[in-house]
Structures are given as C-alpha cells and as structure tokens.
From TrEMBL:
Enzyme active site: E286
Keyword annotations from UniProtKB, A to Z: Transferase
Descriptive protein name: Propionyl-CoA:succinate CoA transferase
Residues that span the membrane, as ranges: none
Acetyl-CoA hydrolase/transferase N-terminal domain location: 9-213
Binding site for CoA: G260, V261, G262, N263, V264, N376, G380, K400
Enzyme class, first EC level, given as a word: transferase
Similarity section: Belongs to the acetyl-CoA hydrolase/transferase family.
Length: 499
C-alpha cells in the first residue's frame, strides 16, 4: 500500500461518525467484520451518553458479525436500526424489547437495495481489507459480503487494514457488482469455482478518509462437536442422498451443496463427508464452516465457493501457510453472487438449512420464537431454499429439553413456505414431501419427524379438523404455542383442545 491515505487511530476514525448516521460495515459472519472502529464507536457512544448527548447510528453489514461489532455497539446502546442479519445475544435482546429496529431480509437482496438507496445514503463505510492501492483497489479479507457495493455507494470510507490477515487470502475474492436493471447482464457462472470478476473491490480513492491499522483475528464463536442428535440427522440426510443417487434423481457426479449456519448444519456436512457412497463434491454456499473446511483439506470436497471463511483461527492460518493448495479450491464472492437465485437454480444446488419449527404442510419458521422474538434472521436460507434443485430443512424434533416440539400444526411465523421446502429431517427420521398432497404430508411429517411424545397429540389435532384441501382449525392451531407461553411446556395443556 502507498502512503496515500491518512493513518488514523480507531478513536480518531470513530470521531468521524455522528449521531444518526447510516454506517455500513464489512462482515459476513465474524469473517472479515470490522473490529477496531466499531469498538471505538461503542466507546464514543458511552462517553457521549455519559455527557447526556444522544448517539445512536443505523448499521448495515453483509450478515452477522463478531463481538466487536454487534455486541459492543448493542451493549453501548449505540444502534437505532440494523439490517440485514445478526446473531448477537445483546443485540437480539434489544431488538426483542423494541429498542432497536431490525429489518430481516434475504441477503442476496441487500446490495441491490443499497445500490438503489432503499435505506438512504450511506454516510460512512468501514471495511476490513488486507491491502488498498493508491488507485482504490481494495483487497478484502476473509469475507466479501456486501463490501463492494458499500464501497461504491458510501460518501466516506474508512479502511480497517488488518495486518494479521494474509494478503493471499485477500486475493481469493471474485468481485462482480452487477449492472442495474434493465441493463443487467446475465451471470456466466457455470461451475462453482469459475471466476467472472476481479480479485479486488474498487473504490473512488478520494472517498477514503483514513486507514486504521489492526491485527485482530476474526471473532469466531465455538462450535460444539457433533452430538447424538445431529449425528442421527446427518445419518438420515446421507441415507436419503445416497438413495437419490442410486435412483438417478441426483446425477452420478453429484450436485454442489449449500449448508446453512449452526451446529446441526456443520454436523450434517461432516456426515456427508464420511459417506463412502456420496462422491467427492463441491460446495456453492455462503458460509464455509469448520467441518466442510476439513473436507476440503482431506480432498473429500473438491472446492468451495463461499461469501466468507467462517473458520477457526488455526484454519485461517492453515490457508495462509498452504496458499498454493487453497488458492484454486476456494472462491470468495459478494453475497449478491454467492446467494444469487439464478445461479442457485442454474448449478442445481442441494440446499440444507435449519428450521426452528416446521408445520404439518412444510412451512418453515427459521427466525421467530413463538412468532414474536427473533433468533438471528432469515439470512441466506431463503435465497437457496426457494431456488435449489433440492431443498432440505433439518432440526431436532424438540427444543428446550423436550418442552417444545419443533413439529407443530401451524408455524407461528413463516420464512419458507410449503412450495420451497421438499424434505424435512429430524433425529426421528425424514419426510420427503415431493409429490405429496397436504393431508398426506401432515401424517408423513408427524410419523417420521415428530418426537414420539408429541405424536398422539399432533394426530389428534388432525383427526378433529374438518376436512378440506388443507386440514386446519383456526381455533386450535396455536394451542401448543399457547401451552408453552402459559405453562412453559407445549405438553402442559394436554387437556386443551389440541388433544
Ligand atoms: O437455543 O441457543 O438457547 O441453546 O434455538 O438452536 O438447535 O442449537 O440450532 O445453532 O443450528 O440454529 C434456526 C437459529 C438454528 C439457525 C437456527 C433454540 C434452541 C437453541 C439454536 P439456545 P440449535 P442452530 C446461512 C443460512 C436462519 C438463517 C440461516 C438460523 C437455539 O440455523 O439462524 O439459515 N437459521 N442462514 O434451543 C424455541 C423452537 C426452537 C428453539 C430451536 N422451536 N422454539 N427455541 N430453538 N428450536 C447463513 C447466513 O445466512 C449467514
């Protein structure tokens, strides 16, 4: 990098952010998230609040971030509005108390919304990079996210130059910012590893107001090892995919996989990797988690296209140390491309995402507990599920020590409707909903996926419904949720009208 841009401390950079501004920051999961500047903004907010002055900003990122961004800003009460996704406990609490406005949206939609100004002008973008050149080439770090669009649209740009991230990782990006409609050209991307763009994002260098140097690693939370439940789910998924292969419904060279966030998704990918019948495969996904990375290392996975490297610090280190191996096996794309509906359909992705609850007809709630309190957000799950060749949803059959059945008569919130959901898997079994009409779907899901302690209750609901194309009774369909809210247990009101 040239010395063309002023070097600022994080505190000096935070001084450039004022109350009410829309600030866009890099980060797609903790991967590549801005760290030093948001922490300094949180400190600035605390000082201003103590002095009796207002300070809250509107925050955009690619997806969720690390503790220095969402946790720190939320704990400092420095956020008034947030989009498009989060997974931070303190932020979630404030959203669910109504203290922070949160807009939950498909991640592939975000760059276009920013480009057309749906949220107003971006005052400042804070973008983590491994390098920046005098003429405005920005080499991003462990994620691309929506940073290319943020750089394009922001009035001012602060670069967090992370010296701890390898410059070689910064060159794994394949950046394309599609033209705007009606002049948008089709994306000629026929293979998960194909490159169609540049290795850097472009910014008008006159917008760069400062460089903040940093060397912190990404703040990845711990992953728990596969447990009995997630291994059982993985077993059913592997068996199903093996049978689909044998029947010729999945081509013999297999199809690229997408896998969502979380421990269950991580375990299922591990299970697929351990299968001797599923051939070596590619991923076309938005997050590359630790388990699939191990498959890449072992050669079981042939390559991965992702939006970010949601990896353990030692795995990031491993990429830097063996860059010749990984350079041709990993491509990092903007979320508009990694999650692009046209490409997901074109490549024939097998999508695997996680549900909070699933109803009898295959509607999926991935985001809101009891229809009210947000967990994380829809993230990219809708981008993939709606357009996949095969859309699978997984979850344990119960939550909170059995007090919650994840199989319910009607979802309390719907993120993915019955038309985007083809296969449901819990540790109890698998329901293949393809070609199955609603009444039969309900029985299949109860018998194959619900926990045995809930099955009678669920069957009785159906038996007491008046027949229709879909069996429902609007007076009873939320009785299990009502039991949970009143008694802390969906079974507690067994005398209720569900039973
Ligand atoms: O609660 O955290 O208090 O223990 O939900 O559940 O079983 O640990 O599952 O970590 O895989 O997360 C859907 C949230 C699952 C995630 C969700 C409680 C349960 C536990 C977590 P605790 P698990 P996971 C790509 C794709 C949407 C976004 C997405 C998610 C906690 O996968 O956010 O897919 N998906 N993006 O006890 C009440 C229920 C519950 C429940 C589970 N029915 N009611 N609580 N829990 N079911 C990535 C990106 O987009 C970047």
């Amino acid at each position: 990098m040239s010395g063309a841009f002023p070097i600022l401390s994080a505190a000096e950079a935070a001084e450039l952010i004022d109350h009410g501004m829309l600030v866009a920051m890099s980060g797609f999961t903790p991967a590549g998230a801005a760290k030093a500047v948001p922490r300094a903004i949180a400190d600035r907010a605390k000082i201003l609040h103590e002095a009796g002055q207002p300070f809250r900003i509107r925050v955009l990122t690619g997806a969720s971030t690390g503790t220095s961004l969402d946790d720190a800003l939320a704990e400092a009460d420095a956020v008034s509005w947030r989009a498009p996704y989060q997974s931070s406990r303190p932020l979630r609490q404030r959203i669910n108390k109504g203290e922070v406005e949160f807009v939950d949206m498909h991640l592939s939609h975000l760059p276009q919304s920013v480009l057309f100004g749906h949220f107003g002008d971006i005052d400042v973008a804070v973008i983590e990079a491994t390098d920046v050149t005098e003429d405005g080439k920005v080499y991003l770090s462990t994620s691309v996210g929506a940073s290319p669009t943020f750089l394009l649209k922001a009035k001012k740009v602060i670069i967090e130059l992370n010296r701890g991230q390898s410059k070689e990782i910064g060159k794994m990006a394949d950046v394309v910012v599609p033209d705007t409609p009606p002049h948008r050209k089709s994306l000629a991307l026929d293979h998960p590893l194909q490159r169609i763009g540049t290795r850097y994002a472009q910014v008008d260098p006159s917008k760069i107001v400062g460089i903040v140097e940093n060397d912190q690693p990404d703040e990845l939370g711990g992953f728990t090892a596969s447990d009995e439940l997630s291994s059982a789910i993985a077993g059913y998924v592997v068996q199903f995919l093996t049978e689909e292969l044998a029947a010729g419904r999945i081509p013999k060279e297999f199809l690229p996989m997408q896998s969502g966030v979380g421990n269950v998704a991580n375990a299922v990918t591990e299970g697929i990797g351990a299968s001797t019948e599923i051939p070596d495969f590619y991923m076309y996904t938005e997050v590359l988690q630790p388990a699939p990375f191990r498959l890449l290392k072992s050669g079981r996975m042939k390559g991965a296209s992702s939006c970010g490297l949601t990896l353990l610090p030692e795995q990031i280190q491993e990429i830097s140390e063996d860059i010749d191996f990984y350079r041709d096996r990993i491509v990092l794309r903007p979320q508009e491309i990694s999650n692009n509906p046209a490409i997901v359909r074109q490549l024939g992705i097998i999508a695997m995402n996680t549900a909070l609850e699933v109803d009898f007809y295959g509607h999926v709630n991935s985001t809101h507990v009891c229809g009210q309190n947000i967990m994380n957000g829809i993230g990219g799950s809708g981008d993939f599920a709606r357009n996949a060749y095969l859309s699978i949803f997984v979850c344990p059959s119960t939550a909170k020590d059995g007090k919650i059945s994840t199989i319910v008569p009607m979802c309390s919130h719907v993120d993915h409707n019955e038309h985007s959901v083809e296969v449901i898997v819990t540790e109890q079994g698998l329901a293949d909903l393809r070609g199955v009409a609603p009444a039969q779907r309900a029985r299949l899901i109860i018998d194959n996926c619900a926990h045995p302690m809930y099955r009678d209750m669920l069957h009785r609901y159906i038996e007491k419904c008046k027949p229709g194309h879909i069996y429902h009774d609007l007076e009873r369909c939320f009785d299990m949720h009502r039991n949970l809210m009143r008694h802390g247990d969906m079974l507690a009101g067994e005398t209720s009208s569900v039973a």
